[in-house]
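Hi support team,

I submitted a single chain yesterday and got back a structure, but I'm not sure I'm reading the token output correctly. Could someone confirm the output below corresponds to the sequence I sent? I've pasted both exactly as they appear in my results page.

Thanks,
R.
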Amino acid sequence: MDLVGVRAAVGEVLDQHLGSRVREVTSLDPDCARELAERIVSFTLGGKRLRSTLAWWGWLSGGGSTRGPKARAALCAASAIEVLQTFALIHDDVMDSASTRRGEPSVHAAHAAEHRSLSHKGDPERYGESMAVLTGDLALAWADDLLHEALDDLPTRREAHRVWRDMRTEVMVGQYLDLRSQARAERSVRTALRTDRLKTASYTVERPLHLGAVMAGAPPTTVAALRDYGVDVGVAFQLRDDLMDLYGDPSRTGKTPGEDLEQGKNTMLLAVGVDLAREGGDTAALELLERVGDAPVDTGEVAHVLERLGARDLVRRRCRALADQGMAHIALLDLDPAVRDGLVGFADIAARS
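Hi R., thanks for writing in. Yes, this is the structure output for that exact sequence:
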């Protein structure tokens, strides 16, 4: 299967699996199916299917077959990551108080708006957040269901279960670090990169490749190379996302510029800016950057200051270096040409900022 074929096949798996789950919920309560279960379906099917594609590439890199029952099982397991992504994003939007996602109201914002329009009792915001938490919890349960059912047909299920377990835990720890650094107004490059490694690189690139390779019974050298690629390119991907948050086109990002900045997130971009302002004795810039997250600031002014200090360029260079480093890890692997092209292309996207 080419890239388009993989995405279509994943869409078919998700449509079947989630459709059956929605029917189960409908039999229990039609309103719950409409307000929670169906939102999971629309949210999941609207994704780019990056993670499931990477898991499939990991499967092929490990020598997995392209057809037959085992290939189908691997594809279903890869598809489970898309449902895990739904859980993570819905909860992340609640914790970040994000009003939009992919250019549409976030799940908690949509529920709050519905509460207000129907003149329900209680606090609309609290209601919306509670409904979003339930929706995310249900998505996580469904992701586990799909993964476990798929792995029943593979002899490598024990090893694959371990990768899945580690991936889920890493996402939680990464989110914890993100929240804690915001509460402490931390401005640390080291902590920012550690958070990026656990919260984003793990379940976006490293673990999907790892899961696919392990399911296929890949040799340790192949698994190690793919994981190393995943860590470097995954962190580069997050650094690029940080840049896009502040400098990207809202029509492409689907987000209001500076959302992460307003939340006071400890990104490498902001942490580097603070370090450069301090080292250069730029007190005006330092005062502005230290107010981020504590008081309203002009997002455009912060963007300009970070660029003037050289923080934007430094993060850009780090993205490129990490992408190149990631490619070096897999340079000697005997990969299917289409898989190699895909990994090279993804690394190139991560380096573009």
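A quick pointer for reading it: The chain has a mean pLDDT of 94. Let us know if anything else looks off.

Best,
Support desk
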